[in-house]
């Protein structure tokens, strides 16, 4: 982190040196003055709020009613899932959120690497066109991605079910078959009996995979192009099979680039507000809710501001733990990178 | 934290990834035809999955039957009409606000957040990247900590804070919280740490030789910043500005939370009202046309300048 060394003239008059001491702070004042008011102050206010029963009534500007101090009550009620809202289970929420992030990253990285390897095959035609097309999901605003996929997964008129019925028709399955008429976003029964994940999770996974693999592919392509060609030639001379070449040459070179990006992907997906909020809206029964969407609902739908504040503090510490763990992972593998 | 250690490496790799259309090896060996065909089939399938949602939306938007709901999988519409586009440009929602009005509100937030973020961010980024001072590490960690925090986590206190600024003057009343200005402030609160961090990341990659030469010639710190660093940082400022613009253009959370008057609605709010259970009166053709009009300007810019922009995404994406 401390790589930036100040480039300053070696000899200066006394007056100049004093100025030098203050000057760095002058450069920081505009940004930090604004952040102090609209970022740091609200954050501290939030911590205070989390110990109160702040609600709609405390909003009045004229004759304000002070919020009542409730101690750790909000925190305890969240941890024990004793909120007056339906389908709230804190532990399940956290576990689902972690699994959601992890499963996405694994799928995205594997697909991204595979497609990058295919695209990097020597002598492949139309490579540039494919690369240009494959970046498209990245450039579309996420709110549009989420709302479009929501319509695509519509049980009656969605493109996915129509496509399934089209493919089913090729094999002589009637379009009215319930297996081709899935209630993707709301079906209450889990599709795999031993796996406690709703169908909506898989719908979200599909949509997010569409969104997520291309950037992984870009990172993998960068890493692939840094592999010296001689290594493959040497491996070929030693009679290595394509799989052996992939395992012993390609993967060791990919790891230093993919691991940090996978960690990024994990944090990004962990906080990915758009898909659960616009696609599934937490259905069925709040089981596809993640922490950030639940936090928003507590404040926006329920107006439980004190509880929402405590929830945000939980979120902060969970993210801190996730960051510390992933940071340790990144450090442990840093020797590969440099 | 993860961001500082890996940002520059990632940016390097991503730029190489998007830039490198040229093939790696020196001698191009011919691929056996059977493998060429097999790989093309695989890639065509991937292309189909990537384009599928877009074809579907485009087809719905152009469908001359103005589909209230699609009656089948028409990736190529039977004929084309721009009726859905005219409809959503005139009256996208049931509120009396045109597409242009919505776009103007989105534009205000986007421009405000982007310009203020870059203006305030660049000097702080310069200080973090080039100057040595006491408390540098602590302040950088403060910026990073906020950067890591999803914007949902600050939305409630911001709501309460901005809600205190109300002016009532006879019939006229102004509530900062329920105004575009208030939303812009909330977006800035989320974007400023990102702007600082992204700009600092770029400044770190600019060699210091020129600045040292200017210092030897007796240039002051301010002169070095204005005459040497700022011109070199223009690409970074453009990238950060665009990503900030994109964030403001598509901002949903704070708008939905803060805004009460339909005349202050933005594109993202209108889009949400065209989907799902809110959309009883909206045809899917109109939704599709609206989504395309909403996405097209930013997506085109992004697509053209992707080479410079994807690196910034690695930092920006952390923010929910």
Molecular structure report:
The complex is a heterodimer of chains A (338) and B (320). Chain A is built from 14 helices and no strands. Chain A has 338 residues and is mostly helical. Chain A folds into two domains: 36 residues, no CATH class; 250 residues, MetI-like (MetI-like fold, Orthogonal Bundle), CATH 1.10.3720. In chain A, helix 3 packs across helix 8 and helix 6 runs parallel beside helix 11. The N terminus of chain A is likely disordered. In chain B, 50% of the residues are buried. Chain B has 14 helices and two strands, in the order H-H-H-H-H-H-E-E-H-H-H-H-H-H-H-H. Chain B starts with a helix and ends with a helix. The N terminus and C terminus of chain B are likely disordered. The interface between A and B is large, with 121 and 128 residues.
Low-confidence stretches of chain B: 1-6, 19-27, 315-320
For the record, the CATH class of the largest domain in chain A is: Mainly Alpha
CATH topology of the largest domain in chain A: MetI-like fold
Could you name the CATH topology of one domain in chain B? MetI-like fold
Structural class assignment of chain A: mainly alpha
The rough form of chain A would be described as globular
What's the architecture of the largest domain in chain A, going by CATH? Orthogonal Bundle
Largest sheet of chain A: none
Task: Give the overall shape of chain B.
Answer: flat
H/E series of chain B, N to C? Answer: HHHHHHEEHHHHHHHH
- Poorly predicted regions of chain A: 1-19
- As for the number of domains of chain A, it is 2
Gyration radius of chain B (Cα, Å) is 24 Å
